[in-house]
Amino acid sequence: MKNRLIALVLVVLAACGGNGADAPPAAQEAVPLPEDRQTLTVATPGDVYITRDRIFLGIWPDNAGVCETLVGMDHDFQPTPVLATSWTYRGDNTFRFELRRGVRFHNGAPLNAEAVRYSINRVVELRQTLNTFVGPDSVRVVDEYTVDITPTQLNLRLPEQIVHPFFSIVAPGTNPAERPVCTGPFTFANYSPNDRLVVNRNDQYWGEDKAKLRQITFRFIPDQNTRRLALESGEVDLVWFLAPQQTADVRRRPGLQVAPAPPGAVVDISLNLNGQGQHTLLQDPEVRRALSMSLDPRALAEQQWQGNAQPVAGVSPPAVLGIAAGTVRPHLADVGQARRILELRGWREGPDGIREKDGRKLSLVGTAQFDFEPEALQFLQAQARRVGIDLRLEKAPDAAAYSAKINSGEWDVDVNYYNQNDANPVRIPAQFWYSRVNNARVRLTNPGPRFDALVDEALAAPDLLTAQRKAAEAINVLVNEEAAAIALTNFPQIYAHKTSVAGFQPHPSVNHQSWTAVHRVG
Predict the structure, then answer these.
(1) For residues 355 and 388, is the Cβ–Cβ distance under 8 A?
(2) Strand, helix or coil at 341?
(3) Of 85, 167, 198, 333, which one is least surrounded by beta carbons within 10 A?
(4) CATH number for the domain including 214?
(5) Strands 39-44 and 215-220
(6) Are both 298 and 205 inside the same structural domain?
């Protein structure tokens, strides 16, 4: 009866657009398969663990349900209790977290304050604290089930930030890079580089809702077409990141359904404001403005991504900014004005259509995150060329190569999609453009002190509404006043799966995807 009620709720949500799925009701109401057939094979874009992210095996970016954080994030980007039952601000930039009692790690060790201190200090040692400003002395054990956390600079967004999977609580003395031992509804089984990650249900899980699946296998399949073919052939049950151009074809196939996630990531272009050598053209804000005006987010969403994305005004998903999202001025696409700007700056169109000035062509080189589809990059290149800008974009082969390229400074533009991985409304502006974070790229992308001051105010805001308003102001400075970044669309994060998969509800942030309610039906 419980399963039937869950299925009915999911059908209603799908009909109202609640989870974006377009499943036929009959598939959702089917009878669950026997226990021995409650397994799932998921195709992911590739194995990031073979390079820089091995330290987060099964934790990030593939959330395999093995580990948990003190605070979680719901589908509305709101923090929710997980391993911490509550948190309070104590003054003096300090938050107190009360831990859930009776929780045990997969190795039987108890969850306690010392485990929290160990886990967060591990993140500090790995220099993966993002923009939380948590330092080596930030965590203080109050008693067995209470910890205080004090960032190294004023930051009242801390509870919203530590929902990020980086802050997962791991068993003291264990090495997550080899075998993550945590508290989640699934336990680590095995990992084969460039092949698969396997997790099993944790029958001793502390939560009331135990996982319905007995086992999940995450298959690493970098190529988009290969992932889709694996789904169509039955080799896998669910695909993560279906190409937008493939959705119509998948929808027409019996036994398959498409499940787009609610908007939780934004396609942005970062601009190199402080480049050297051949990468100085974007030091001119008017050239930056002309490049921005040459790109049409609506055309990208509707033509290239076939209506599977929507234009956005800023570099953060509108939902995380609340009502303040309406104060972010929308992107202006205007080819004629872009041409006029370049003419006024002395850039004349050459015989090949590319503008020149003082013997130098208006040629910009750029990189893109490794799982960005080439067709979208070609689309952006063609749009820039309409105003006489030679935009050359090359997709990085993997995460390590992408990071190396960005950190080198040998680029003019960076096409990327940024996930809202935590509940902090100023997360994306602070992570990628704020001069005070531990991020090598910001020396090239930071738009100046006014932007930094607004991020400071958002981090120090005593309430969420003020933080959202300050975040929106910072985005206006970044995108509109300084033309230091270009906001395009939300990123179409699309799943597809067999109709025999029930209970799957895409999270707007892929790093927070839950597999607990997912199960197989006949």
Answers:
(1) yes
(2) helix
(3) 85
(4) 3.40.190.10
(5) parallel
(6) no
**CATH number, domain containing residue 279:** 3.10.105.10
Question: Which two three-digit tokens encode residue 191?
Answer: 């990992």
Task: Output the pTM of the full model.
Answer: 0.90
Q: At a CB cut-off of 8 Å and minimum separation 6, what does 237 contact?
A: 40, 41, 42, 231, 497, 498, 500, 501, 520
Q: How many angstroms separate the CA atoms of 306 and 248, rounded?
A: 9
383: tokens are: 């749009």
Chunked into runs of 10 residues, the chain (522 residues) has average pLDDT values of 36 36 51 96 91 85 94 97 98 98 98 98 93 96 98 97 97 95 98 97 96 98 94 97 94 97 95 96 98 97 94 96 96 95 98 97 91 88 98 87 90 95 97 90 96 98 97 98 97 96 96 97 94
Asked if 329 and 201 sit in the same domain, the reply is: no
Residue ranges making up the domain that contains 444:
265-490
SS3 414: strand
Residues 202 and 296 in one domain: no
Q: How many CB atoms sit inside 10 A of residue 357's CB? A: 15
Do 333 and 479 belong together in one domain?
Answer: yes
For residue 62, being part of any structural domain is answered with: no
Determine if the peptide bond prior to 61 is cis (ω within 30°).
yes
Please say whether the dihedral angle defined by the alpha carbons of residues 399, 404, 406 and 411, taken in this order, is positive or negative.
negative
The values of phi and psi at residue 426, to 5°, are: -105, 15
User: Residue 64: inside a domain, yes or no?
Assistant: no
DSSP run (H or E) holding 356: strand 355-357
Task: Report if residue 178 sits inside a domain.
Answer: no
Q: What are phi and psi of 171, to 5 degrees?
A: -65, 130
Q: Is residue 189, in this structure, part of any structural domain at all? A: yes
